[in-house]
Write a structure and sequence with these properties.
Blueprint: E1 3-10, H1 15-28, E2 32-39, E3 47-55, E4 67-72, E5 84-90, H2 91-96, E6 108-110, H3 112-120, H4 126-138, H5 156-168
Parallel strand pairs: 1-4, 4-5, 5-6
Antiparallel strand pairs: 1-3, 2-3
Helix pairs in contact: 1-4, 3-4, 4-5
Length: 171
């Protein structure tokens, strides 16, 4: 069975890193994985999205039509308005923008930015907290896989801690 995950953020939110680490984890446990990135024309602060498809069998078509999990860390893009079985959204997007947009804020609203600041002292860990939450949704225990594969060596322990925190996060 083919499963799909769409990740949406802006430049600087670590969508590319999140996608690579998730792809590595899925590959490590035996899935066939396809990962494609799309970048906005803006150099900084533009939208970045990742389409990740995984399956027990070869992924013949990596184009995502039906989304199983949609992670939205930035809501300005039209991509953020896609429908999905599970929607996980940065809470601050829904606090003010929902009146003006079509983003489906009825999904899980998580204050990634605030949680990363409070628990790890920096918003740069919001993507790893999100990765932990995604791993929980797809049933992969971060204690049983090599999370370090693909993470930058400089802050590896903090990133692993943020992933594990996201996995155990309850709002």
């Amino acid at each position: 069975m083919i499963k799909t995950i769409k990740l949406i953020g802006s430049g600087g939110q670590g969508i590319k890193l999140l996608g690579h680490v998730l792809g590595n984890v899925l590959s490590e446990i035996g899935y066939q994985v396809s990962l494609n990135f799309e970048f906005d024309t803006s150099v900084r602060g533009g939208t970045v999205s990742a389409d990740l498809t995984y399956s027990d069998e070869k992924v013949e078509n990596p184009i995502i039509e039906d989304i199983d999990i949609l992670l939205v860390l930035e809501g300005k893009s039209e991509l953020a308005k896609r429908k999905a079985k599970t929607v996980i959204v940065e809470k601050s997007i829904c606090n003010t923008e929902c009146i003006k947009c079509d983003l489906r804020c009825e999904g899980k609203q998580i204050p990634f930015y605030d949680v990363a600041n409070k628990q790890f002292g920096s918003p740069i860990y919001m993507n790893m907290i999100a990765l932990g939450i995604i791993l929980k949704h797809i049933g992969i225990n971060p204690e049983k896989v090599d999370l370090k594969n693909g993470l930058p060596a400089r802050y590896i322990e903090q990133n692993v801690a943020a992933i594990k925190y996201g996995y155990t996060y309850n709002d």
